[in-house]
């Protein structure tokens, strides 16, 4: 009898889990509300498929391949879809913002009460964003230009020192972007360009992005880790967000309180807001906002600058057109030696090259996930129940041939100058879209619109290794490396094309 019970027990040991697994697989494949959405088989069964895909550091390219294979809507976890359908994109990222950010962002927020980038409460976010909006508005930019000029001078001095030599442009764009965002935020910089190197901040931010990019898919793992951390110690790069950068923000914000500045910088404006609304926008919120500025506004700008310069150099005809435009504006006296933003905004080819550089290589390589609101939604011909996560990837949208033409894969700034470019702007996704679109967009356009003509006006620029391609690494941001140039100062900055 005992032996019979033992046999029965050991059979159940196998049978029950097998039945449970089969039931789960059958449910996900045939009965789940998302069962009709195509996608990789494993992705429909487990979120770990997406975790491992992201950990390969090429999710931007993989998403492009997935949509090519499966169409405008792809199931990428048992309860998450990736969307490339144009009308669905507008629905998900509407300006009234009823589609909240998903739990993916919780790992970036950690325990901070307010985080403008990662906060998921729609109302709290709207209130916080209103508080800081003025500091990023278009009319504020003219006050910030002086800070960009200061950093452009340092950049030029450093490039003159390296004249004719092979320069690591990937690295220099990062040094420039960090120092400039420091100036814009606190009217002081990190001193990275002066030192020609960073202090470890770059790799910390990269580790935060790299770890957060996959951990956000399984936020319960992050919570478990945080609970066990006192015993097991820290195993996650994401926890680096509390490190050096925030310490810098705390130190510089305190110093900034007593330091008069030439022009109002971002922290100065936020300290004023905090003084007027101490309950809604606390001193800690000022520090969080300043930290977010650096984390969200430096690598993104560096990546975009690299893309613009690299593609101009890879496509000599586009470089020639830009230099011709610069020369023409110089001849007409419409472009200063240190280009003004108002002048650069009037240069159509320059602006087209900036948008095209950002289109072919968006800085963010992961989907921007949102939660389907109560009542569900119809997306790309499918009913998607409330609570499902839906996201769009800029790398996918920007390849849409309906919007960007049959040559969408190519770098061709002229497309932005042709008639009917309205949809191209409407679906331009490098800055995200809707109520959570990038608040620093104008600031980055200010920086890029000044740096690009400064470079091509003052230097003859060429790729140091023209036969080599750069390398891409998607760790939330899609960083480039192996991008070296030779810059030779021009004797005549009237520019002969
Ligand atoms: C070319 C440069 C930039 C790119 C490509 C970029 C890209 C983005 C994207 C895609 C988002 C939306 C993220 C999402 O929906 O999850 C975003 C949000 C944000 N960006 Fe940028 N960004 C850039 C520059 C900047 C700069 C210079 C700053 C600060 C000065 C900044 C600050 C922010 C902040 C605070 C948010 C969160 C906004 C919110 O949720 O209300 N960004 N950015």
From TrEMBL:
UniProt cross-references to InterPro entries, sorted A to Z: Cyt_P450 (IPR001128), Cyt_P450_CS (IPR017972), Cyt_P450_E_grp-I (IPR002401), Cyt_P450_sf (IPR036396), Cytochrome_P450_monoxygenase (IPR050121)
Domain of life: Eukaryota
Cofactor(s) of this protein: heme
GO molecular function: heme binding; iron ion binding; monooxygenase activity; oxidoreductase activity, acting on paired donors, with incorporation or reduction of molecular oxygen
Gene3D superfamilies with a match to the protein in the record: Cytochrome P450
Keyword entries, A-Z: Heme, Iron, Membrane, Metal-binding, Monooxygenase, Oxidoreductase, Transmembrane, Transmembrane helix
Transmembrane segments: 12-31
Keyword Transmembrane helix included in the entry's annotation: yes
SUPFAM superfamilies per the UniProt record, alphabetical: Cytochrome P450
CDD domains xref list: CYP57A1-like (cd11060)
Positions of heme binding: 438
Keyword Cell cycle: no
Family of the protein in this entry: Belongs to the cytochrome P450 family.
The protein's name: Cytochrome P450
Organism of this sequence: Lophiostoma macrostomum CBS 122681
């Amino acid at each position: 009898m005992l032996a019979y019970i033992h046999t029965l027990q050991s059979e159940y040991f196998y049978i029950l889990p097998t039945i449970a697994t089969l039931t789960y697989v059958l449910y996900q494949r045939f009965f789940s509300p998302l069962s009709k959405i195509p996608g990789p088989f494993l992705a429909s069964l487990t979120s770990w498929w997406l975790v491992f895909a992201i950990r390969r550091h090429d999710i931007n390219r993989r998403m492009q391949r997935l949509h090519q294979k499966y169409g405008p809507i792809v199931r990428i976890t048992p309860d998450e879809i990736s969307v490339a359908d144009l009308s669905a994109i507008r629905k998900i990222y509407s300006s009234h913002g009823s589609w909240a950010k998903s739990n993916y962002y919780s790992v970036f927020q950690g325990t901070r009460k307010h985080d403008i980038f990662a906060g998921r409460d729609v109302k709290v976010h709207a209130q916080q964003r209103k508080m800081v909006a003025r500091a990023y508005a278009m009319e504020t930019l003219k006050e910030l230009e002086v800070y960009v000029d200061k950093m452009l001078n340092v950049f030029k001095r450093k490039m003159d020192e390296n004249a004719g030599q092979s320069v690591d442009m990937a690295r220099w764009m990062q040094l420039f972007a960090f120092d400039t965002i420091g100036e814009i935020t606190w009217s002081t910089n990190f001193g990275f360009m002066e030192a020609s190197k960073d202090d470890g901040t770059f790799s910390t931010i990269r580790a935060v992005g790299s770890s957060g990019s996959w951990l956000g898919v399984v936020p319960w793992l992050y919570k478990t880790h945080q609970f066990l951390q006192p015993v097991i110690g820290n195993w996650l790069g994401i926890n680096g967000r509390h490190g050096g950068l925030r310490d810098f923000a705390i130190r510089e914000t305190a110093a900034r309180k007593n330091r008069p500045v030439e022009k109002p910088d971002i922290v100065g404006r936020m300290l004023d807001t905090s003084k007027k609304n101490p309950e809604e926008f606390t001193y800690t919120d000022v520090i969080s906002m300043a930290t977010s500025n650096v984390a969200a506004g430096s690598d993104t700008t560096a990546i975009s600058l690299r893309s613009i310069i690299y593609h101009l150099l890879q496509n000599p005809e586009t470089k020639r057109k830009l230099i011709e435009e610069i020369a023409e504006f110089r001849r007409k006296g419409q472009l200063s030696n240190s280009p003004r933003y108002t002048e650069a905004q009037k240069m159509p080819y320059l602006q087209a090259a900036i948008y095209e550089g950002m289109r072919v290589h968006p800085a963010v390589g992961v989907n921007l996930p949102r939660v389907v609101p109560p009542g569900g939604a119809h997306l790309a011909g499918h009913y998607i129940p409330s609570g499902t996560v839906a996201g769009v990837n800029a790398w996918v949208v920007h390849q849409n041939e309906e919007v960007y033409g049959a040559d969408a894969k190519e770098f061709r700034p002229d497309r932005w100058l042709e008639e009917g470019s309205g949809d191209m702007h409407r679906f331009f996704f490098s800055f995200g879209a809707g109520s959570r679109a990038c608040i620093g967009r104008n600031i980055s356009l200010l920086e890029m619109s000044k740096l690009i003509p400064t470079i091509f006006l003052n230097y003859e620029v060429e790729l140091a290794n023209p036969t080599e391609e750069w390398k891409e690494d998607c760790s939330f941001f899609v960083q480039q490396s192996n991008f070296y140039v030779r810059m030779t100062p021009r004797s005549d900055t009237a520019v002969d094309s």
